[in-house]
Amino acid sequence: MRLVIRQDYDEVSDWVAHYIKERILQFKPTKDRPFVLGLPSGSSPVGCYQRLAKFCKSGQLSFKHVITFSMDEYVGLPREHSQSYYSFLWKHLYQHLDIPSENINMLDGNAPDLDEECRRYEAKIAQVGGIELFVGGIGPDGHIAFNEPGSSLTSRTRVKTLAYETIIANARFFDGDVSKVPKLALTVGVATVMDAREVCIIIVGAHKSVALAKCVEEGVNHMCTVSAIQLHPKGLIVCDEDTTLELHVKTVKYFKSIEHVHQSLIGKENLSLQGQVISAKGATIGITRPREDQEDPKDTKEDEDHDEDRPSKKKKED
Ligand SMILES: O=P(O)(O)OC[C@H]1O[C@](O)(CO)[C@@H](O)[C@@H]1O
């Protein structure tokens, strides 16, 4: 598992947005071979979505051949409700992209048969060949999607009762009123996420620091369902400094040192092949930023500040 630690929310958003962009560009999706992307709701990915929208607007990235699946949806909340994940994703992402509406997949929390809706969702994922990259978010108790503590780590898409802690955490989106938060949700399962060929989890904020420590330093445990990422061959967590509060200092230093080596290898001693950085020994260690993928300077104000650090950019001395 890789743990990338950035300074703050903006840097995390910037890093993840560039990562998604590079993965899609590298994949070179076509109509017959689309890129399949899993996406979360919640406040964690909003900054990333703003950047993806910007990439799309400036022509650096197209979602024409991207198929998306969102992680979850409340049960019984009308789609047009401002806090449904349907409204959320349209507002923060889809309306800004060139993605064909038929490529957007969301769970319907108002389907007449919720179990059938969940089966349909899993079948659709399988039908398009599985998910290439699942980007996710977690709750303060370490739940991934809405897989609350105690969820089976082999779970698939299904109806879940929300934990009281999640209801309290999400009350901020419902006028702070716990009674307005739906008590049930449809969610992809832990195994649905972990079946993706790559998993990238965004974790930001001190309130998620205990969950991050459990996920990184303790064993795989159904009480912290995101910990299943330890078993994934290509698991990535991107967090900010605040979220590392409960990690051991040596853990933080360890992962930072790995990223440091990673950066220096990207800049100097490696061959770049079709967007992948190949180490001298032949292992794929990262992805480069293709030279033609240069942003319009007026669009890159916040990018310029992090040029040295971002794995997806080639170092300036190149
Ligand atoms: O990013 P936030 O606002 O903490 O919300 C996290 C919530 O969003 C989700 O990512 C839902 O997609 C859940 O995993 C979690 O409950």
TrEMBL record:
The organism's place on the tree of life at top rank: Eukaryota
Per UniProt, residues of the Glucosamine/galactosamine-6-phosphate isomerase domain are 8-229
Carries keyword Repeat?
Answer: no
Any one GO molecular function term: glucosamine-6-phosphate deaminase activity
UniProt biased composition (Basic and acidic residues): 289-318
User: Is Transport found in the keyword set?
Assistant: no
**Catalysis: reaction(s):** alpha-D-glucosamine 6-phosphate + H2O = beta-D-fructose 6-phosphate + NH4(+)
Q: Where are the transmembrane segments?
A: none
Tell me the protein's name: Glucosamine-6-phosphate isomerase
Which source organism? Hesseltinella vesiculosa
* Classification lineage: Eukaryota, Fungi, Fungi incertae sedis, Mucoromycota, Mucoromycotina
